Batch of 2 targets.
Target 1
Amino acid sequence: MSVFRKVCIAVVAMFAIGPAIATGIRLPDYQAITLDNGATVLLMPRKDVPLVAANVAVRGGALADAAGKEGTADLLGGMLSKGAGNRDALQFAQALDGAGGSLGFGSSREAITASAQFLSKDSALMLSLLADALLRPKMEQAEFDKLRKRAIDGLANAKDSDPRQLIGTYAGAWLFRGHPYGRATGGDETSLATITLADLQAFRQQQMGGDRLVIAIAGDFDASAMAAQVKQAFGGWGKAAGTLPQVEAKPRELGRRVLLVDKPGATQTYFALANIGSRHGDPAEAAQDLVHTAFGGRFTSMLNTELRIKSGLSYGASAQLQRPRQPGASQIGSFTKTESTKAAIDLAIATLDRLHRDGLDAATIDSAKRYVAGQFAPGLETAPQLAARLVEMQLYGDSRDAVDGYLGRIAAATPAQVADARAVFPASADLAIVAIGDAAKIRAALQGYGPLTEMKLTDPRFSP
């Protein structure tokens, strides 16, 4: 058992005895280096396992997609491993498989991303593959055509089979309509069809460069040797030509509005109740996390207890808090049989009302503190987890206190702070509501919640 895991278990044990005596955990030591081109390199040597992990972010993600071409960054992330340097797509995959490593690329709202894990002896190969993919991708037309087709087909298949995986996308588009956060990071069927390989190449030139690079490496390596290798691999990458996209905060919703997405013949209704919630670095984050845990963040939460355990109206109900740079969505989500749509939504709203009316008692708050502590420590155990956390901290400008002091803030959260933090979930009078289901059977029920707008699930976009 690793030393770090023993520390994590000890911390959890302290919270099991009582949150008042917990002192939290600390990130292992790491080194931050800035290359001449502006790239940030974060190195965290750990000798317990002969593995090395890298996490990468290149600032400038889906927020930089051109209007009408949403999904460009997402497709670009997918293309980076389809051949790079001297390797075509097959040779790139063979090099990866031959070492038994893992390497994936993608995108988020704010970055093109990558993650990798290799045996320590293959760290040079890991850096070579990463550098080739980021600096020298082949970007072949045939590979692009296949990737774009899979993306479009994937959306159509999700609508046909299990729209549950899309309810969050519809809810985000409805809540943030007219705002950059409302644009689907993976695009929609219309926008994907308009994107060309030239669009990806232009995006890469404008939004990717060494000055945007953040790379964190954790695992079994010599720090000075690794620093030299990273400098050699990425130090010559020039700057991005464009500017980073800027986003203004969206005001909270006042009143209600309802979107009904018609899926004729559906036997279930998937629904979301949303408003604007919290942002990354919110001073009330710890207290908000306790409210989220008790209200909708665990199996025994208020929402799941009411909608699943007690009433049997759903197989699951939860709440989510999204914390991008500007305030993101605060959302309740669940699904139910078509005939119980109104009963389930009514019960979700009643549970939200009870949260605001009655608050959380001392026993619930203490239980939430123990749960959060138990979930927090294992999330910082492995090299990939630590590398990912370092990149996130760098992207948002966090100090290490974001981790080192978190459990202390959880333990110290007062009943008054928790009571104030309930506001992260809006009052039920102010909701953007989305439901996917058989409109003919649930339209009348949904009209009772506020002004109703309708669209079809087969429509190629995620908003009317």
Target 2
Amino acid sequence: MATSVSDMAGGYRPTDNPMKTGIFGRCPRCQEGHLFTGYLKLAPSCEVCGLDYSFADPADGPAFFAMTIAAVPTLAFAVWFQVTFDTPIWLHLFTTMPLTLLACLALLRPLKGWLVCSQFFHKAEEGRIDLDFRHKSGSQAG
């Protein structure tokens, strides 16, 4: 990642490891400020370096990854629990469901931080159609 002049002028060295920085909920530019004001609510900006977090939009990514990562171990637990103890299905509401919920909640914040830091690191932005490219490729075909 190329460090921008404005980052270096402020004395900040952006993260070279967005996963580590994001998991700890730190600012991707200075690695000192906080990303979150609540459990999952992004701060408007970094209190240390002033980086505006309006660029960040992880959308449903953290929820998708959290559910995907939590699903396999909790399903394995549910199958083991059912086969070992031959319990009624309703008992899973008090064992497997809370385990799944807690696993997802534990993963959401670190995953959201990682995705936000990755967006900054890779300079991700909203996609747009390159009309100039479409025009050039159409003129070459004729």
